Amino acid sequence: MHPENDLQAFIREGYLHFLPHVSLDCVVFGFHDNQLKVLLVKWKKLGGWSLPGGRIKRTEHMDDAAQRTLEERTGIREIFLQQFHTFGRTDRTQNAPLGDVADLFGEPIGPDNWLADRTVSVGYYALVEFSKVNPTPDFFSEACRWWDLHELPPLLFDHNQMVTQALHALRAQLHYQPIGYTLLPETFTMPELQALYETILDRPLDRRNFQKRMLGLGYLQRLDERRTIGAHKSPYLYRFDRFQYEKALQEGLGFGQYVPMTSFAG
Amino acid sequence: MHPENDLQAFIREGYLHFLPHVSLDCVVFGFHDNQLKVLLVKWKKLGGWSLPGGRIKRTEHMDDAAQRTLEERTGIREIFLQQFHTFGRTDRTQNAPLGDVADLFGEPIGPDNWLADRTVSVGYYALVEFSKVNPTPDFFSEACRWWDLHELPPLLFDHNQMVTQALHALRAQLHYQPIGYTLLPETFTMPELQALYETILDRPLDRRNFQKRMLGLGYLQRLDERRTIGAHKSPYLYRFDRFQYEKALQEGLGFGQYVPMTSFAG
């Protein structure tokens, strides 16, 4: 099949294969140069950027649809995905009504087209390895690239609000789930792990308290090697114990191992 | 309009007024006799209990639809509602396929009826004053009543899983939002507040740590009166400072005032 034909079929009769009235949007966080990055796509004709999103096939679990969408945009399989909020305001696409976009994609998207119907959108966030992502535009977009979290443009639809809520959820996740496996290289120093936490929380943390808390969680392995930086500084290298990490991810850190972030504060 | 006509119109052409493929389900928690209760409805013909649920009008914000649904089931307006998860498995209604229920409500619900279509369901939980609720069945249900959380029957659809996840979310909420205003009478003692927390967390908490933490949150007012219990026990009465409580509810307890529940443990 020719991609353009696929697009036209999707616009004309995609509702036969996908659920109407429901969509997915993904806030993909990457970590690079001590900054949080967010993956955005630029729409061919609407003249703006949005989060990567998708539709749910009628025969597909919703979570699988989110995985598929992200694999298509990033090239990565089995991404750590977390559903964080579902957006259902009637005016959520008001700043870019698809129904006003006629004939832009070789097939009219008029107000009666299924793609112009109101959707309730389920928001997921993902934590991915920045370096492994191969940003790939979809049918409707001409570009797909990383943006600094602090320098996002005004986004189409309600997507700025989605990013804000996803960040809020990610910060909350720090308290009850391990974080870092997909955001850091395989081995890392304690200052590097702390920089990740500080970047997500957007504030400094106390070094000694942070180290104590992190080691108490039981999923960090200290390696024998150290990183050679200078004559006097040779910080230990760590890696995540995959088994313990996965266990904590599935079960949560639990109330017994709860990590109050206030204890980190300097 | 006669209710039966409304029901038949809803079954026949409700999709003109409501969004297909999306539904809402509500886990309504009440607190009574030191037990958490959950509001359930019994379906007229499917032969089982489920959570109260509803549909979103095409012209209505999703959150408003949840408020409307709950007002219809409980008689209470402006309920504290929290969205906690959206359920999108293809098999989520497999244990009670509505499409197999023909002609039961005076109007056939066959496999082609819009009500038999797959839905993605957005889960909300609510905390309500047990004594103020007037449980009211809907069109499809013959009963609506409270059940003990620990004695729930097997529920239709994926609703047992919904209750489990709602409880998980409610427990998490204890850490970052105030709780209790709609679950306790206007004035209460510290042991009564502690009992609420213990019931939600399902484990005992240390009395002194609990009191210290609670008073530190800044939204409890101690009254001059005490409750007279016996010759020697006259615990202070408290009430919530509405302004501070609402502020904390909107802003979250924040990382600065974070309440680690581990500190409560006995």
TrEMBL record, chains A, B:
Question: Pfam families from the xrefs?
Answer: NUDIX, WHD_NrtR
UniProt cross-references to PROSITE patterns, sorted A to Z: NUDIX
Q: What residue stretch is flagged as signal peptide? A: none
List each copy of the Nudix hydrolase domain by range.
19-169
Task: State the InterPro entries in the record.
Answer: NUDIX_hydrolase-like_dom_sf, NUDIX_hydrolase_dom, WH-like_DNA-bd_sf, WH_DNA-bd_sf, WHD_NrtR
PANTHER family linked to this entry = ADP-RIBOSE PYROPHOSPHATASE, SLR1690 PROTEIN
Q: This chain belongs to which protein, by name?
A: NUDIX domain-containing protein
